[in-house]
Amino acid sequence: MRSLRLAAIAIAFSLPLAAQAPKSAKPRRTPLPPPSVAQPCAQSDSSCVAPELRREFRGVWVASVSNIDWPSKPGLSTAEQKEELLAILDRSQAAHLNAVILQVRPAADALYKSSIEPWSEYLTGQQGRGPSPAWDPLAFAVEQAHRRGLELHTWFNPYRARHPSAKGPLSKRHIANTSPALVKKYGTHLWMDPGESAVRKRTLRVVVDVVKRYDIDGVHLDDYFYPYKEKTTAGTTDFPDARSWKRYVKAGGTLSRDDWRRENVNTLVRQLNEQIHKAKPWVKFGISPFGIWRPGFPEQIKGFDAYEQLYADSKLWWTNSWVDYFTPQLYWTIAKPEQSYPALLHWWGAQNTTGRHLWPGLYTGRVREGTSDSTSAGGTTPLRGAWPVDEILAQVDSTRADPRSSGEVHFSMKTFLTDKGGVLTRLVEHAYGDVALVPPSPWLSKQAPSAPTVRAKKNAATGGLTLTMTLPKPQVARWFLLQSRTGGVWGSRLVASCACSEEITPNGERQLPDRLVVTALDRAGVASPAVRVMIAP
Asked: pLDDT by residue (tens digit) across 472-513?
């Protein structure tokens, strides 16, 4: 199976690539020559105008639980783990995505170096055992993603303590062993009790630890709060939180049990929002809840009640701006009225009264194998089973047509690695044909960055140009956007700010750009004024 997976990864690199990966560069230690003439683009200077890039979030979930996406199986060597992770990032860059949402805490464990929780079984094959040779997958992922112009968001499960796909023994450091009273067996899972304040404090500690130690772009939660109800032959069973509930009542609590459960989750979400931004104000906080808040909202909608069953008042988090972006899992087709993708998207957009980002989740992995079939997408007959590729294309179009949404997230990376049903090829042809920038989050930025200082020096060895780009201290750029025109064609690429210089090499006809424009973007995606670099003949 693994050889087939690697073969699929190799095939994946055949997609068109309009923006090559920037080359890493060591910091310069010698004085720089005087800069080439650089000037801001004047509105009247039509020769300086670079094409405006689309602002659109194009994300993909990379799930580690059950080894869904990465690693492909537990216990791979460090070299194999890195190889697979780089294949994911290369594939994402080639398809003009701009964000990867990497699951780093699937079940009170860690796919990164942690002093709080044990190494994940999904990484090493044995919970608590570190990778050998030692490496930190998250530090590697952040560096390599930024090198490719990709944001890296870390995905945490706040309450799950063990998934049934885990087979080995729990580490001595696992919360089920260190604090067994906080963990409940519920069906085939172990679950940390959301009613325990110690559980909330632990999740906050885990998340803030990652925010402080890694240069991540976002923190992400999915739809698992209180667990989905376990069913038996006698019906559903209730979550076993009698201990924490009785303590609440004894202390004088007046909420009903359901409202108390919802308030437990609300408190965690509110405190995560506060503590993430206290640690690093520019780190985005996002949640991808179940796509229906409650049946009847909007009126035609029927189905699962996440408010009642998961105790997730996602509308409250959204309307109170406790998140910077919201990714409701709209895992239904356009044509099905009782769970209509555009109807739900429009309803969620109408709840966004403070201008935060709406980036819905798409069930891209449900596309069928083989050729696409356009007869059902956007039509009148609800689809059954697998979907044609054109359904996903229509959902992207529907998202773009709604002025209150600005991108989407795809589940999951495995579908893109294999190009299941040709979905990624079709997405690039239909919608992702060029580079897009993540929409800005101005509420996370103190001020727009200044125009960058750009120096250009000809490289005699390559016949190209070496650029250096800086901002005045203490301003910090996440990216420098390079837009160059060669032979009448504009190209764009993002350069991570950690690279002190960037090489502009001649094209196949030994041509250098005749126009070069540089823009700085801060960590919140807010852009500086553009600067035109004058290139001497």
From this structure: 999 999 999 999 998 888 999 999 987 667 888 877 666 888
Residue 329 DSSP code: B
CB 305 within 8 A of CB 313: no
| Residue type at 251 in one-letter notation | A
- Identify whether 85 is part of a domain: no
387 within a domain of the structure (yes/no): no
Q: CA–CA separation, 302 vs 296, rounded Å?
A: 6
Enter the tokens of residue 347: 């309803």
In-domain check, residue 277: no
Q: Is the pLDDT of residue 15 over 90?
A: no
Return d(Cα 135, Cα 87) in angstroms, integer. Answer: 18
What is the number of structural domains in the chain?
Answer: 1
On the question of a cis peptide bond just before residue 474, with omega within 30 degrees of 0, the verdict is yes
Check residue 488 and give left, alpha or beta (phi > 0: left; psi -120 to 50: alpha).
left
> Strands across the sheet with 160-162, in order?
160-162, 189-192, 183-186
Q: Measure the CA–CA gap between 476 and 522, rounded to whole angstroms.
A: 6
Element (H, E) at 177: helix 175-178
What type of residue sits at position 93?
Q
Kindly report the number of other CB atoms within 10 A of residue 275's CB atom. Answer: 16
Query: Domain holding 513: CATH number?
Result: 2.60.40.10
Contacts of residue 488, defined as CB under 8 A and 6 or more positions apart, other chains included, come to: none
Domain assignment of residue 288, yes or no: no
Closest CA to 289 of 185, 361, 230: 361
* Bigger pLDDT: 489 vs 214: 214
Among 284, 270, 159, which residue's Cα sits nearest to residue 225?
159
Q: Tokens standing for 11? A: 């095939």
Question: Does the pLDDT value for residue 207 go beyond 70?
Answer: yes
What value does the mean pLDDT take over residues 172-181? 98
Provide the residue range defining the domain that includes 486.
2-53+444-533
Cα separation of 83 and 43, whole Å? 46
Give yes or no for a contact between 155 and 103, defined as CB atoms under 8 angstroms apart.
Answer: yes
Instruction: Let me know: does 364 contact 348? Beta carbons within 8 Å.
Output: no
Describe the chain by its helix, strand, coil percentages, rounded to 5: 30, 20, 50
Whether 379 has a pLDDT exceeding 80, the answer reads no
Contact 419, 425 (CB under 8 A): yes
What type of residue sits at position 447? Answer: Q
Instruction: Please state the pTM of the whole predicted model.
Output: 0.90
